Amino acid sequence: MCSATIAITALPVGTDPVAPALRSDAARAKDATKLGANGEVLHSFATLLAHLGTLTRNTVEFSQGIQIEQLSVPTPLQRRVFELIGSPIPITIGGKSTEQKH
Predict the structure, then answer these.
(1) What is the superkingdom listed in this entry's lineage (predicted)?
(2) Which of 10, 23, 72, 93 has the fewest CB atoms within 10 Å of its CB?
(3) What is the per-residue pLDDT across 76-99, written as a single tens digit (0 to 9) for each?
(4) How far apart are the first and last CA of the chain?
């Protein structure tokens, strides 16, 4: 048999346990300026995905039938995102990828 101890403490008078949390001054400043503490632009998930979507690979075909792959240069933000998730920047479509060197 297992025993458990439960400590029951009373909430301070006037405290509503389900009241919304108060936002800090720093949170209000971020919301108003859309900038982080170090001046970087803050993104929503949707705007971040839209920005990542600008990283492109284009196939260029010359008149002799020669094809080359042209990669867009990742922006500093795109590089940082891939660094944070611990993944190389994909340079091929499919399961294989190697890191792009610039």
Answers:
(1) Bacteria
(2) 10
(3) 999 999 999 999 887 766 544 444
(4) 63
Residue with tokens 């301070």: 12
Closest of 62, 64, 71, 77 to residue 99, by C-alpha: 71
Q: Which two tokens stand for residue 64?
A: 């002799």
Whether this model's pTM surpasses 0.70:
no
CA distance 74 to 58: 14
Helix (H, G, I), strand (E, B) or coil at 96: coil
Angstrom distance (rounded) from CA 66 to CA 33: 49
Query: Which pair of tokens denotes residue 102?
Result: 């610039």
Alpha carbon 65 to its chain's center: 39
Sign of CA dihedral 93, 68, 50, 27: positive
| DSSP assignment of 33-65 | H-B-TTSPBP--HHHHHHHHTT--EEEEE-TTS
